[in-house]
């Protein structure tokens, strides 16, 4: 039930709702965080767990390096684009249904890949895996926005994002153990078991966090229906209930409101939701476009470094699958540390800057906490590339992998929290846009990775990536500097347009 007087809320972030997730007990909140983190880990595992098995899969299927790269690039592209669909569904049917269906699809895809006898079948059902694992990428952060207040989201985002980062950390080890001890097919049977168990946990234990009153998609449809209700006695999908007998003719069409004491109950269907309109609104804000470009570059680097490192360790250092897995754990460990510490630092800096600004905060404050990681990442990337090029002892590779993971994800944890905070009411659409930018960037990076690495070598390949990471940092700082003005102008433009409608 939603009061008519709140059709256009001034503060949709704190719109009153029944069974408000933000009033749940800490135990219940933490249980939800644990479940979505477990689901997010699957996305990380699926992308990296097969890296130690590259050579065995190429021989067994058989497949070329280019075909194997294609399987990875299509996986990450689909994983980036499909969240646009999951987001639209979650804004109508809630978060729980999306988690259940997506995990079921991932389980099915994993089973088929495990029994595949050709690279074509692997590529096709890896795409289905990607579609299934992608849901948590788009609505995981939105679920946290449902549960937690903005002041604590940085820390929670850091904890949540630690889960998919554990994929690059433990994925290569698990993949190396399974490939060495059994066969590469055991990797995908393992993924099927893990995702199936997680799906059952969501079915039994997860409580939906979506509240339509805090969704701009819902509010916009509601406003249109109320406008129709002002001039018609009945409107499909809208049920009116009055606490006092007031004729419908007393509605005020100028204000688009019904008589005092009237409440409505509205049911949305997928027909009501245009999945592209919220995305267009997100992309019409310059602050979003710039930070999404930066996020795409950041993710492409995080994805490609594990893949190219596995190729280097196999071809130049002649390590087996298990040893490669143990070396790559350094990058995952750095990513986990950067996610947790970066999230906490983001909240700390937000609180400090808020206090210095008369107890008034704005989303761009978060990005200022990433200044140190922005400055330190490019030199680490450059050093890593030339260490690999000169075949320095593997311990140096481990140190630089840890450093690259640490500083890369330190920046990304603030970026992801900013994307959510700066798009109040449509954070799922903003996060879905983020996934799309990430997916396209990683797809391109993966497609050029093999020819670039083989043609230029690790040194010059990562010199290019160091330049891209410097560009990424400058884009993030640009949003920290100009983003507030861009966002305010966009909000005023949208409010003015809404008032004319």
TrEMBL record:
Single GO term (MF): transmembrane transporter activity
Its membrane topology: Multi-pass membrane protein
Residues of the Major facilitator superfamily (MFS) profile domain: 32-484
GO cellular component, one term: plasma membrane
Protein's cellular compartments: Membrane
Record's keyword terms, sorted: Membrane, Transmembrane, Transmembrane helix
Transmembrane segments: 31-50, 70-90, 97-115, 127-147, 159-180, 186-206, 286-307, 319-342, 370-387, 393-419, 431-450, 462-481
Pfam families, alphabetized: MFS_1
Listed InterPro entries: MFS, MFS_dom, MFS_trans_sf
Region described as Disordered: 232-256
Listed PANTHER family: MAJOR FACILITATOR SUPERFAMILY, QUINIDINE RESISTANCE PROTEIN 3
Name the record gives this protein: Major facilitator superfamily protein
Species per Swiss-Prot/TrEMBL record: Lyophyllum shimeji (Hon-shimeji)
């Amino acid at each position: 039930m939603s009061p008519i007087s709140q059709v256009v809320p001034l503060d949709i972030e704190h719109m009153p709702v029944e069974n408000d997730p933000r009033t749940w007990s800490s135990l219940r909140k933490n249980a939800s965080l644990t479940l979505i983190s477990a689901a997010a880990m699957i996305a990380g595992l699926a992308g990296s767990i097969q890296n130690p098995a590259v050579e065995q899969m190429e021989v067994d299927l058989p497949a070329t390096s280019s075909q194997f790269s294609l399987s990875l690039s299509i996986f990450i592209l689909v994983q980036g684009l499909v969240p646009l669909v999951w987001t639209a569904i979650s804004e109508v049917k809630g978060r729980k249904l999306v988690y259940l269906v997506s995990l079921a699809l991932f389980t099915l895809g994993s089973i088929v890949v495990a029994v595949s006898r050709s690279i074509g079948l692997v590529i096709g059902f890896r795409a289905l895996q990607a579609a299934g694992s992608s849901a948590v990428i788009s609505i995981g952060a939105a679920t946290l926005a449902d549960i937690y207040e903005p002041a604590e989201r940085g820390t929670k985002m850091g904890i949540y994002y630690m889960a998919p980062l554990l994929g690059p950390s433990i994925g290569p080890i698990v993949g190396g153990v399974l490939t060495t001890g059994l066969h590469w097919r055991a990797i995908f049977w393992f993924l099927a078991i893990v995702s199936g168990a997680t799906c059952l946990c969501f079915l039994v234990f997860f409580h939906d966090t979506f509240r339509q009153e805090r969704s701009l998609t819902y509010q916009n449809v509601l406003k249109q229906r109320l406008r129709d209700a002002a001039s018609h006695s009945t409107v499909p999908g809208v049920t009116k209930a009055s606490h006092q007998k007031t004729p419908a003719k007393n509605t005020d069409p100028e204000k688009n409101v019904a008589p005092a004491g009237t409440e409505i109950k509205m049911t949305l269907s997928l027909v009501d939701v245009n999945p592209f309109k919220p995305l267009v609104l997100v992309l019409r804000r310059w602050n979003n476009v710039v930070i999404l470009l930066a996020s795409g570059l950041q993710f492409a680097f995080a994805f490609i470094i594990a893949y190219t490192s596995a190729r280097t360790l196999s071809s130049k250092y002649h390590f087996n699958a298990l040893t490669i897995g143990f070396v790559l754990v350094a990058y995952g460990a750095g990513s986990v540390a950067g996610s947790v510490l970066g999230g906490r630092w983001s909240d700390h800096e937000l609180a400090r800057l808020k206090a210095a600004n008369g107890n008034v905060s704005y989303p761009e404050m978060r990005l200022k906490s990433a200044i140190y990681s922005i400055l330190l990442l490019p030199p680490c990337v450059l050093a890593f590339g030339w260490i690999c090029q000169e075949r320095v002892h593997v311990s140096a590779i481990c140190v630089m992998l840890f450093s690259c993971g640490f500083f890369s994800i330190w920046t990304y944890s603030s970026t992801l929290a900013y994307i959510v905070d700066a798009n109040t009411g449509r954070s799922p659409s903003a996060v879905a846009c983020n996934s799309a930018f990430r997916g396209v960037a990683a797809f391109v990076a993966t497609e050029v990775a093999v020819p670039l690495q083989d043609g230029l070598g690790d040194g010059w390949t990562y010199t290019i990536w160091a330049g891209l990471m410097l560009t990424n940092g400058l884009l993030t700082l640009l949003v920290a500097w100009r983003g507030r003005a861009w966002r305010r102008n966009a909000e005023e433009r949208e409010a003015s347009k809404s008032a004319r409608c």
